[in-house]
Amino acid sequence: MTGAALFVLVLIAAIALFLLARAVPAFQRAGFGFLTEREWFPDTDPPRFGIAALAFGTVLSSVLALVMAVPVALSCALFLTELAPRRLGQVVGWLLDLLAAVPSVVYGLWGVFVLVPALVPVQRSLDRTLGGVVPLFDSRNNTYGRSVFAASVVLAIMVLPIVAALAREIFRQVPRSHREAAFALGATRWEVIRLAVLPYGRSGIVGAVMLGFGRALGETIAVALVLAASFDMNLHIFEPGGNTIAANIATKFGESGVGGREALIASGLVLFAITLVVNVAARGIVHRSAVAAEGRP
User: Are the C-beta atoms of 167 and 205 separated by less than 8 Å?
Assistant: First the structure.
């Protein structure tokens, strides 16, 4: 076990060193502008490139995906473990897990040809009803389609089975005595879930959500197919455009020159750092929740 853990640490360190070594020339050429520049022309003279718009799109689409996926995933997990008959829970759980096995390119193609056209009436309706109140839903040009919203829906579907599967395992580990004690006190089924199941699995739920967030941050092909790539920072999520770091790497690596590839690797290093920070934060939250649950100081 110790050897396996050391191997993982060495592997992570090797990936980080590789990215850092290949990214240094791009950092030297772009300077601090690498973090603030919105354009992406690393092979021009002079080069102008940065990840501000890419990082913005990456975080925005991933957060929106979690907002949509987590309530559905937790509801599915609670239904399958607490309410559904055992055999039905097994079948539906297996079908839910099957979603995780679908290749991302299939999600991307389905998103382009089926989901995006189907979402246009939904976006238009939300724009008309909520656009004047919530700027997020306001499409200034009344244009819809391959937008951050559509990409977020695809990401939500891809993240859903991961969060649901982890949540199911967490809820199954709740001791039977907790449920029986709650029932003995006269609690209803919902009260047992609220008072016994959810508090016990709180730290695990946080970990599941963070793993789903990491999955959404790093998705490439599906997002690249669904998004109409642009390098603007736009909070109007129904308008076509937007881009992410991972999708930009997937679409531009083959056609880039030496400078462009160095810039893409540098953006990959930033994505690696964001993912690392998210996972470290998740571990911290899980640890604090576990300590609080055990009553340790």
Answer: yes
